Amino acid sequence: MAILGLPEEEYFAPGHRACAGCGAGIAMRLITKAAGKNSILTESTGCIEVVSTPYPETAWRLPWVHGAFENPASIASGICAALKALGKEDEINVIAFGGDGSTYDIGFGYLSGAFERGHNFTYVCYDNEAYMNTGIQRSGSTPYGASTTTSPAGKESIGKEEWKKDIMHIIAAHGSPYVASASIAYVQDAFRKLKTAIETKGPTFVNLFAPCPTGWRFQGEKTVEIAKLAVETGVTPLYEIINGKHKINRPNDVSKLNPVEEYLQTQGRYRHLFKPERKDKEIEFIQNRIKENLSLLLEMAEKGF
Ligand SMILES: Cc1ncc(C[n+]2csc(CCOP(=O)(O)OP(=O)(O)O)c2C)c(N)n1
Ligand code: SF4
Ligand SMILES: [Mg+2]
Asked: What stretch of H or E contains 224?
């Protein structure tokens, strides 16, 4: 039976080794459902590669190519060029994906190159906000204040001291016709965006927010609840940049945001902001910056940018 109007087919098979409650596992089901059977996938190394293909098994029911950590976008470029030469460019979807470490940091140059060359493919970042596969190291996507093994909170540190990289606008600046942020908690919205990205000609991008119970330190059954809170508090606004113009999906009212601490308190990576004593200044800093960010997005949408 089709659930929430999504295709019934499962191209990411059960029985993979992801942790219980893995948001990235849900992301894979959504990506492959949106892609459909006439698709070729390519992925960098990271949790999903490791949990989906322990030799001699595979969870992939679509053609899937594993490359090095830094180059799924380069592999996708080659596949696009081959399909073009065969005259099959319009018959087969090419989708590259990787974690945030691969996308925001180590594979970024290759991703930028593929977007600049204008290949007809979709890149999806499953964003779990750290290098999870190798032991929870901070990435360019890790949020301000989060404790990771390379940005540990302690007496002299509040965790990561830099704000999360604005990958959406960096990618949009390449002239991509479609850039979207999505969340595994809003499956219909995410499915629509993935499908739009795949059907739009040219290099398109979706940042798919995917909580990680192991790295963020929360119980696996809370994944969707926490992903929802991230949206309701404005931590991860859902929006699209279509041919350079912003469209904000949710939230769309700064004055109605849930307080950010409702989100922060759900995860062990932010525990030090509340214990042994509450760090009001830090929480206020995060809260204000979230409001500023959403205000700016809403203003750009309103002014037609
Ligand atoms: C050039 C290079 N640097 C580092 C590594 C080691 N490495 C493999 S996976 C990984 C972390 C991946 O992080 P991310 O892309 O966010 O995916 P996740 O594990 O979070 O799913 C690292 C550091 C590598 N394989 N190649
Ligand atoms: S560490 Fe996180 S991203 Fe990796 S498999 Fe486990 S829950 Fe998923
Ligand atoms: Mg990651």
From this structure: helix 223-232
